[in-house]
């Protein structure tokens, strides 16, 4: 592994300039036209082979080495969120109700920085680096769009790497763990159909509101009484809709919510039991039910061998950081999972909060912002990680 800390430090101003420019001009899922344009232009100027419009607004760029060797995929996401920014900073979002509130502006800047730093080393490069700038992570659609567009073909990567700036950890801490890191997620809708009527004559109705109430409670038993206590699962009912009047029992009720899990077999089990519980409870109370579960992401699972390789390199070349492997799992989702499913690799967290400077709001908060020192740290570590595969030590 090569030490890129000095090169990254030399790019400090450029990294911040890119990040602040993207921050001022945020674009939501599949609308990252300006961002993708700047990314493509920057990489073309660098001399990389660039392909735009991959999976709608995605960009793929290949840095080809002078010697044969493996292909390393570097993935970052580019999209913002439909949030009105509440930060009063010079680089505040200039677009109403749109904000980089997850740090993807920083990810895009870091990946551009990594491309620059590795480009400087291209004479020694053995193999190639495939940079993937992905759209629409926030709606869990961009990774699959790029995969369907063939992002893993010609050449097929041997390892995939990515990072997330992480405000749940202070700057200087790095989260690097093998196995499941972020949860898989699905959303559900339950439509209950009963028989409405006068609220004063409930015996003449089949009340979908009462059925919904029983269901909300019964669904809690999927996690507590079906999934093993040693496994992890979340089932949250987040929307309850029924009725229009004080004195009318409605005919219909709708429940919506989310399911989170770390293992496919847990997702499978929840899916089966979900249907059985809904049909049993609703049927027992005289209502018909329709269940729709839509999968969004699979769990982000890091390859143990790649994690160990990076840990050894990172702790040797950047011992000043604190590397955490425990208590960094999150039930949040990330569609990097789809790249890691196809090509083993690592997604790691780069601590980015700084409470003293009030840079500690959670991701997706209207006051989210991060300590920009994390840009240099992230770029150095990501370039070093790539170098371990394609550059002589
Ligand atoms: Ni994010």
Task: Please tell me about this protein's structure.
The protein is an alpha/beta fold. It has two domains: 5-182 and 299-390, Zn peptidases (Aminopeptidase); 184-297, Alpha-Beta Plaits (2-Layer Sandwich). The protein has helices at residues 5-10, 12-24, 33-46, 104-119, 142-148, 208-226, 264-284, 304-317, 336-342, 373-390, and strands spanning 49-54, 58-64, 67-77, 126-134, 159-170, 173-175, 179-182, 184-193, 197-198, 233-242, 248-249, 252-261, 288-297, 300-302, 322-324, 345-353. The strands form four sheets. An eight-stranded mixed beta sheet has the order 1-2-4-3-5-16-6-15, sandwiched between helices. It is elongated, with a radius of gyration of 24 Å. Nickel (II) ion binds at residues 102, 104, 137, 164.
